Amino acid sequence: MHTMSKGTQEAAGSREPACVLCGRVDEDSIIHGHKHEDNGFYFHTFCVIFANGLCQPGKDNRNASFYAEDMIRTVRQAEQTLCFVCGNSGATITCADSGCHRSFHLPCALEGQCVTQYIGEFRSFCWEHRPQQAVEAAPTQDTTCIICMEPVGDSRSYSTMVCPSCQHSWFHRACIQEQAMRAGIYCFQCPLCRDRDWFIPDMLTMGIRIPFRRPTWEDNNAYASLGVRHQRCDASNCLYPHGREQAEREGPWQLLLCSSCAAQGTHRCCSNLSQSTTSWECNACAGEGTASSTNLDSAGPNTASQQGLEPAPVSAGQESSSSGTTSQAPSGPDRRSQVPESSMSRQPGRAQTRSRSPLKRQAAETRSQPRRCCRSRSSRRGPAQGRSRSRVPRRARNINSRPQ
To answer: Which residues are bridge partners to 248 per DSSP?
Structure first.
């Protein structure tokens, strides 16, 4: 009969059986896994998987399959092996580095800053040979954990880790392990940059256990209500004879949901909505007391310029350039008061030009126009044969052609 380890002796007086490998009664699903019984042996799942040479090679280690004789051999060898962390016998896990003979219990791994990789060959490493993150980043002063918001220290360590992708997300080992247990392999990612390609392999290498399951927040259909369609009339005065919870497929008692939130509903008749209405918004989304639908005109700004009650504002330069503005305005203030004095001073001159003859008036207008660049008459008229035309002044021809 072999002697029991210290942890097993402490659990001997309790009613709950202890793990035959680590001697612990408690069940920590994060580190130990669940406790099972097989052929009279009580063991934690990962105590069996990480034990030296216990699980059969080539089989799925997550099933913790072993032979009874292998279990007995492993326990007897562990009785002669001391844990370098707690100093007690019964250590069944040895550092995977060649030449290192440090052994420890699985529950002592965290205290001894050991790394146990929960994937692949399920290797274990002591504090001296454990893998390190291949990043050069270091936390700045007053850097806090992105999960718990507590300080993380001034350098990378066993308990302080960083995202290998963004190198800005710092967190405690215990915090990221808790998040991994809740998120699962399908939703686990960097809390800051949401990277998965670099983040997950690095966390597995550093000893973070990521369960192969969906996130815990999807258990027990916690979010099943999000997929249920709202089926209640929320009008202040529901007129449907059968109550708010009932509706018809079409007609005046058809239930329309808010086009923005879909969390409020109303019967067409209860909100005075016509049959042509295709969407509707509740008061919370459209504004208190302004519930609207697509077939109703939205109330825009009722300004005087839009309604035509007052003339649109026009600059003084525009008024002076238009000659018939004052006669066309139906109402409003006298626009002559806005015309510059220079324009008013030219009014008598215009009256004098009206008394001139048509020939003199056209000559005066010609002088007032800007003078063009002078060119030879041949270049303006083109070829020489154009000179055979009548030499009567064009102004005279125009005068004669006008009606008397």
So the answer is: 254
Q: How many CA atoms within 13 Å lie on the side-chain side of 105?
A: 26
Mean pLDDT of 55-84: 79
Instruction: Give 2's contacts (C-beta < 8 A, 6+ positions apart).
Output: 75, 76, 79
Tokens of 30: 């994060």
Determine contact, residues 208/177, Cβ cutoff 8 Å. yes
Q: d(Cα 379, Cα 375) in Å, to the nearest integer?
A: 7
Say what the pTM is: 0.55
Residue 312 confidence class, pLDDT cut points 50, 70, 90? very low
User: Which of 50, 54, 47, 37 minimizes the C-alpha distance to 5?
Assistant: 47
**Residues 159 and 148: beta-carbon distance below 8 Å:** no
Terminus-to-terminus CA distance in the chain, angstroms?
144
pLDDT category of residue 181 using cuts at 50, 70 and 90: very high
Q: What percent of the chain has pLDDT over 70?
A: 65
d(CA 160, CA 139): 9
Distance between CA atoms of 83 and 21, rounded to whole angstroms? Answer: 12
d(CA 196, CA 188): 7
| Chain segment 247-288, per-residue pLDDT in tens | 998 899 999 999 998 889 999 999 999 988 888 999 889 875
pLDDT tens digits for 380-402? 444 444 444 545 455 544 544 44
d(CA 387, CA 391): 8
Longest dimension (CA), the chain: 144
